Amino acid sequence: MSIGAQRVMTLRTKKGKRTSAVESTSTGRQSQRVTMPHNSVFVLGAQTNMEWLHGVRADKRPSQQKSDEEKSFGGERISLTFRHIATFTDQSNRKIWGQGARQKTQSRAGRVRSGDDAEMEAMITAFGRENHQTEFDWQAEYGKGFDVIDLVTRRKPRLHLCLNKVANLRIQLSMLERKISYEIEEKTAQPESAGGRRNPRHRSKAWSHGLSNIEKPILHDADEEASEIEGDLAILFYLDKHYPYEGTDESRPQDPASSGSQNFSRAAQSNELLFSWQNLRTQSQKSESSTSSNRPTSSHGMAIADFEKDLVAWEVYAKESQHFITGKDWTMIDCAFWPVLNEIVHHWGGFKVQRYPALSAYHERVLGRESVQQLLEDE
After folding, report:
1. Nearest to 315 by CA among 378, 269, 279
2. pTM over 0.70
3. Distance of CA 247 to the CA centre of its chain
4. Do residues 269 and 206 touch, judged by C-beta distance below 8 A?
5. How far apart are CA 338 and CA 328, in angstroms?
6. What are the pLDDT digits (tens) for 342-355?
């Protein structure tokens, strides 16, 4: 549809394509010019689109050579293109599904990808091939679908990393698994007060923020509200609510609503393990530096007992699930728990395959995931 100043639509046969519509010229390519006045519509059929290129070229003629219709509306024109593709969106939760999307049914709808440069480039590349190829394979180029709507570059979420490796890994793992394109801000310590101590307002409860009650990552989302979320578990729950996993059998829970209470419970337990692990390392360092006795202190013994009790509980979970930590589907709890387990595997000499076979198998299984490989390569 052409709105505004009058323009001329030029059609030209594609290279190497002979048509029966018009007799061939010496070059074997034909052209046609179609005047497009204000409020006109040009309907392009599938066969014509396969054989002909079409476009409106810039009119560089002097103003005195143009007609009144061509100079109307200040010489400005808007072009609207409509395609019959059964694709649907739910603006309330930014979901998309249908023929032109990645997920074809509403029950498995994916999230609209705003500002996904790779997705936009793939769509534009497909458009270009359709426009220029005479034997265009629609299924190969468009069949998998796209979850972008507006072909504009938008701001990406910004992740402010802290000095806590586990907290950072939790969030980055979740964002990669959800295929969220984001920017990383420089790692910094939290602000300190004038007296040299860290600002008390940055202190937080263990359950909310992970391994350290001081260092916390911050997510600056690119949504309309410019949401700012502080703390690793707080960010994980935010992502779980606003950036659902794509609708694949491997990554999507069958009933997200029913798993909510389990997520809260397991997230708390992952932090209990995290802090018992931190306490064990602290007590171990104290024990090693003590010169009064060669025997471990009672505090060190209690730390080991508490830690192993927590770890055994996760061994049971891994054994019962037999795949990911809460079942056959990847969830936010895998993002919360695996970085803690990874620290334990690499830094605790007591972690043996014979003692923790289910956790060992789970650790190796997750270690092979593309998202984990990418994060470990970037370290």
Report:
1. 269
2. no
3. 13
4. no
5. 15
6. 999 999 999 999 99
